[in-house]
Amino acid sequence: MSSYASFYARSIASREAFWAEQARLIDWETPFSKVLEYDNPPFAKWFVGGRTNLCHNAVDRHLPSRATQNALIWVSTETDQERVYTYAELSAEVNRMAASLASLGVKRGERVLIYMPMIPEALFAMLACARLGAIHSVVFGGFASVNLAARIDDARPKVIVSADAGSRNGKVVPYKPLLDEGIALAKAKPANVMLVDRGLAPMARVEGRDVDYAVLRAQHMEAEVPCEWLESSEPSYVLYTSGTTGKPKGVQRDTGGYAVALAASMQHIFCAQPGDTMFAASDIGWVVGHSYIVYAPLLAGMATVMYEGTPIRPDGGIWWRIVEKYRVTQVFTAPTAIRVLKKQDPAYLTQYDLSSLRLLFLAGEPLDEPTARWITEGLGKPVVDNYWQTETGWPILGIARGVEVVPSKLGSPGMPVYGYDVKLVNEATGEDCGPNEKGVLAIEGPLPPGCMSTVWGDDARFVKTYWETVPGRLLYSSFDWGVRDDDGYYFILGRTDDVINVAGHRLGSREIEESIASHPAVAEVAVIGVQDALKGQVAVAFAVLRQSDAAATPEARLALEGDVMKIVDRQLGAVARPARVFFVSMLPKTRSGKLLRRAIQAICEGRETGDLITLEDPAALEQVRDAVRGG
Ligand code: AMP
């Protein structure tokens, strides 16, 4: 048996012994009395009775040995700024932020919503919440008011931390108006909004509610806020993600299990050493940002690079310049970014000293072979695809190179990662699939440490959504199709649900449909994900108008299409904007009225729709075909 095969086998067969060993990677204020409690499946509790704190493990623990080492390297090509914080400086800033939040009454177990651009204060706010035992909920800065309102109402935050503006492609994107609109739409109003003023956009303050962080920080320059020791299963954060319904799910993460899982992943998967520098080019609004910009590198005693900007501004060499300047050892990004770079001058890959770089990690969407090949050859470094989800918080499939460098296969994210009892099952029968047989990727409980513990405030939804879809078996469904080859390598074949993956960003088609349907001219709409050479997928909408002649002329059609896009921009954010909006007079549905999104998708991608025996009216498919053909 290879060393990885036996490592993996032990993680499943001797689960508790395996994870008790990994748990030594972090500090415990009180040791746990039990590694795993799984007497109420599918709810797993890891490291029962142990008390710890994420901020202590990410920051304080390193102070005796690494106070002067870099902890956070912030680079903004949007505002042409760079700032570097040592562990001592990071600690001071986190304490100032924690004291400021505490002065607004934030306590253990309370929620703080963070709606921020990629600036150091966002990371300070996350760690400050962890320090206080408060639960952060970061909302991606590219989201807009309706998304915000839904999350505010579900998380019911005591305080929201935000900023005047972000910047994208050199263009200022004001946040405050969207936030004010979001709060106005929400029922659960926060007591306070704490604002970082970057001086990018004017901000109106709401008297009595809005406070300036600069003022509070100045009052707490010397603050030392003790870490609140949490029982391992107490929540660290809630991160919302999309699924089949219009209502996003709050993925709830524990504290101890998450710390252990991340610390272990840094050793076994990311091959990181203390003192290394990780550059995860993602956003703190997504799970990769939570795990691999903020927590994991700091837990491992590394420096983390936080980047505000695009991969190609000021030019396509910017990421590699950062690697050279800060001696980055691990880069982590999504395949879309590499496809963007692929369109640039290939000389950028050889112009810089990349000798510090050991590994490039890619995740978030399928890694196509040409992209994998181009970047592997261009960099001359191993490229490691890894597959996971917001729900799991760390990789499910990958190559654990820290355990053994088994060869990878193009197009495959690898094999089940230790701790995950991965199955491929037949969606109709629930039976295990054999090699080369397509099935739903599922995980036998208990989920390993670090994975979601429940849906925030809704245990029943956690069970129903994730654990009751495989017939006859209590299995966690990933909602991804997959296949395993004869050598045990997995390949991911797309989602089983209506989730759209645009440039590694996960969007729900229902949410976009609801937004478009709020346009007064729209009676009905279907949104689907269509293959795109650059972004993996883009959203495309098919709308039925209340008055069919509202888009009779090409000019009217164009104007209405622009209008619909604007509504999505304002409500959900540009990231959710459909690439095209087509107008039809009916949508393909089953006789029972269910939208046939998959048939629409097939037409858009030039595939056969297959046998649609339940189709209500074939003319609807013809309309979709004509619309797409007509452009
Ligand atoms: P998110 O929760 O936003 O991270 O999105 C998770 C989804 O992205 C997964 O369920 C997959 O559909 C897709 N995904 C993530 N990583 C990969 C990968 N390496 N290969 C293929 N699909 C991936």
Give the end-to-end Cα distance, rounded to a whole number of Å: 56 Å
Query: If you consult CATH, what is the topology of the domain at 87-228?
Result: Rossmann fold
Q: Low-confidence parts lasting 5 or more residues at pLDDT below 50?
A: none
According to DSSP, the number of beta strands is 32
Shape, per Cα inertia axes = globular
> For the report, how would you describe the main beta sheet?
7 strands, mixed
Q: CATH class of the domain at 87-228, anyone?
A: Alpha Beta
- Kindly state the mean pLDDT as a whole number? 96
Please identify the structural class as seen in this structure: alpha/beta
Query: What bound compounds does this protein have?
Result: adenosine monophosphate
Rg over C-alpha atoms, rounded to the nearest angstrom: 24 Å
Count of helical stretches: 19
Query: Strand order across the biggest sheet?
Result: 5-4-17-16-18-19-20
Helical content class: 25-40%
Q: Based on the structure given, which CATH architecture of the domain at 87-228 is correct?
A: 3-Layer(aba) Sandwich
Strand content: 25-35%
Explained architecture:
Belongs to the ATP-dependent AMP-binding enzyme family. The chain is of the alpha/beta class. Among the domains are: 87-228, Rossmann fold; 499-630, GMP Synthetase, Chain A, domain 3. 31% of the residues lie in helices and 25% in strands. It has 19 helices and 32 strands. Strand 4 (70-76) and strand 5 form a beta hairpin. The model has no long low-confidence stretch (mean pLDDT 96). It binds adenosine monophosphate (AMP). Adenosine monophosphate (AMP) binds next to strand 26 and strand 27.
